[in-house]
Amino acid sequence: MPVISDDQLGEIYSFAVQLGKDAGKLLMDGAKARFAGTADGSSDIAFAEKDNAVDIVTQTDEAVESFIQQSISSRYPDHKFIGEETYSKGASRDYLIDSTTPTWCVDPLDGTVNYTHLFPTFCVSIAFILDGRPVIGVIYAPFLDQLFSSCEGRGAWLNETQQLPLIRSPIPSIPVKAPSGCIFACEWGKDRRDRPDGNLHRKVESFINMAAEIGGRQGKGGMVHGVRSLGSATMDLAYTAMGSVDVWWEGGCWEWDVAAGIAILKEAGGLVTSANPPEDPSTAEVLDASLGSRLYLAIRPAGPSHSETGRQGQERLVREVWKRVRALDYERPGI
Amino acid sequence: MPVISDDQLGEIYSFAVQLGKDAGKLLMDGAKARFAGTADGSSDIAFAEKDNAVDIVTQTDEAVESFIQQSISSRYPDHKFIGEETYSKGASRDYLIDSTTPTWCVDPLDGTVNYTHLFPTFCVSIAFILDGRPVIGVIYAPFLDQLFSSCEGRGAWLNETQQLPLIRSPIPSIPVKAPSGCIFACEWGKDRRDRPDGNLHRKVESFINMAAEIGGRQGKGGMVHGVRSLGSATMDLAYTAMGSVDVWWEGGCWEWDVAAGIAILKEAGGLVTSANPPEDPSTAEVLDASLGSRLYLAIRPAGPSHSETGRQGQERLVREVWKRVRALDYERPGI
Known about the structure:
Helix content of chain A: 25-40%
Oligomer: homodimer
Number of domains of chain A: 2
CATH class of the largest domain in chain A: Alpha Beta
């Protein structure tokens, strides 16, 4: 594996931030063209269906991935590139990130449904991976003009000026009665099959457990402070790094959905482990999630309380979530 | 009732927009003070719990309402003022808006839980009501720097420059297979009682019907394109006016949560009716929601298709939602 100096890493970080800004601008240009009805000449069409937008969105998605891939390959020809669009067209679902090659893992457009409807929480997600670990993350949501970025050892940032988490003097501890008092982010996702005990029903059962009053749901009621769904795994992770979300729980994501978000969240002091509860949630070790595992439970950065360290508080919250959620059924060859 | 000329209405509109910007800035100042840990001197406290934030939030909420109330009463001493904070402290839950007095209906902070956690979708909501009807609406979400505003006859706007809905050349029609293809916004709310057939379970049953595959849920599956929860009724309405949300369905809101949003959505071309399905959803008249009814179903602005007008498409979607949702149990004296 090539040695990358601290100076070189800083240079790659600056490049990645600029790339995120440029790619986000391309996404926003595509959106603005639709405001005016010019993207596909639809201003000439008397009657429009929003479904027509899907082709335009796919074109933008592919164009932005090409732009990112070409920018990277001309600047860093030895680096590997894994992108959502190119990957999706291949037949394999293998995990392609290894520990030998510096690798870029990119989703040109996370929150595709949002982008189709011009719902503001869509973004570009760019991660740089060394030794199998995301060390640089850049997320830019152009409609919201929110840029999240991090580099190992250099902190995590909102718009390059506000260090994450937002509240940091001191960083709040995990509430004593968590998940009560927490913001819980979750997504309904694409698997909507109405099968008994299928993913949709397991998810919803978990959501209700987290939301219901304390004492409800045969003792599983978590009475979270709020349930939020933004339609983007990447934005969920970014908001967890801000400290705005306390818990994000999801299955079915791919590595390009989460690599940059995990880099930013971990650099901010957050924790990412598996969504699926172990046999004994009270005692099992809280391991880092594998990047390609498709099952993620993220906890915001946390400071210490009088009785526990920040990490102890985070692990306590992990266990409280594990006690309330169902295992989800998402597979991955080779993981 | 005093006659208000078009010029006077324009003057009130400008005043309301500036008031929204100023009030939103106060909210953001309160948030930023917490970034630095200075709002309550908490930088001196070694261990912080997020719950401590609640007092600060209440103080800001009350301070912003006072600022708005005083600004209005010094500029328009004859106008009535109904604010969330002052109202909530009273014993009555009566509907206080009448058709004789020009009235301001204000929520200084919608999305209180979001503000507590610094989750970005919080906002100030200001409506001006004539003859019982919201004719001016101003919503400002300072973290996102999104300002929504409208005045009857003058259009609805994002940040004063982008007319709503965002896509308007032409405005998309309602999808043929709606609610399939739609973004559905809904909130879990505060009533988390785990009672059989209580509001929580009726809501979740409705959410699942809207989300499940076509053919699922004994034919009720709506296969919406996405389910979103932002934790603010006001922001849900604003995003519906943008066209980013197709359907918002909710019970339990109060008039200050929705008055400005309804003004903006209707001026953009949207429709607001009751959340609760009538006896025959297929044939019942689609009536405008009463402002104080606490039950709302909002549909985005829609253009015509080859086979129906925009309004016909909206009513079709209303009926498709009514067929899939449960009636919610929220009461209101005098409505």
